[in-house]
Amino acid sequence: MNNLMLRKLLAAYPNQEEFLKVAETIIEEEEKKENNLLARDLRDSLYRNKLKNNFKSKDYASLNIPCDHERGLPLFDIKKFDKTWEDIILDKKTSASLERVIQENEMKDILIAHRLKPRQKLLFFGPPGCGKTLAAQVLCGILNYPMVYIRFDGVVSSYLGETSANMRKIFDFISMGQWIVLFDEFDIIGKQRDSPFEHGEMKRVVNNLLQMIDNYSGESIIICATNHQHLLDPALWRRFDEVILFDLPNKENRIKLIKRNLRQIRTEKMDYSSFADSMNDMTPADIETICINAIKKVILDGRVLLKSEDLMESFLIHKERLNRKKEIYHEVD
Questions:
Q1: Model pTM?
Q2: Torsion angle, CA of 110/111/113/114, rounded to 10 degrees?
Q3: Which of 191, 226, 249, 303 has minimal Cβ neighbours within 10 Å of its Cβ?
């Protein structure tokens, strides 16, 4: 630390926000000098007491979220969710995997006493709209952990080494608390290192990411979610304690999804089984959209009863939209 930065730090002391900014600049300078151990110790000292106080007050908005040095963008958002199992419909195998994660983390003291660790590093994969993000929110609600939602617009930088430095800031931060850490669209930084389309910098990012995941020993649960699991580097798969598939819902769950999404309005007697058969290739998000659009039409028409033809009309419109999307992407391919 040079004398100028020391003067700035002391001058900023009465102003907590300015003090944190100067302190973060000092830590970033040490990281650029590759004094990583010192930088980590400084950041730990800077944030530990503040984090502990805020965990008691739940005043997450007042935390000093680390930012990208290049553009000043925050590296993540902090969110709170109160969702429960009632908010999600999953197949039995996926639910069982999530229940094991919850049980192990709720009873982690017992596991630690036996020199065992709970499942904390999870990979969610499968088609878009099948509940990966919602499942992470449910874990937040049940475990009462706030979510650290990673913002890749802030993490990924054009500066050499800056992306890895941003990832290190994230891992340093989450190691000092209990969070659900969601890396949504994880394939953005987890792509295969031998891909001819990736440049050397992103390959170094993956190497550093592997080390960070391996060395992570905090109490947070890290969830990496992707719709493009085939793009992930093979070495990443071994780093996860649990790999969970979120697939298209079966017929039983499609019926549950239709009923749940229509529960806010009166409906005539419907053949839910027939509708579920028609929606065999649709995601929970598709089914929700179909139901919501049907409800909107009934309300805007000034009616109080949703009929089968309302749901069928909404289904056909959405089906046509999906077909157009497939045609467009097929043409691109």
A1: 0.78
A2: 130
A3: 303
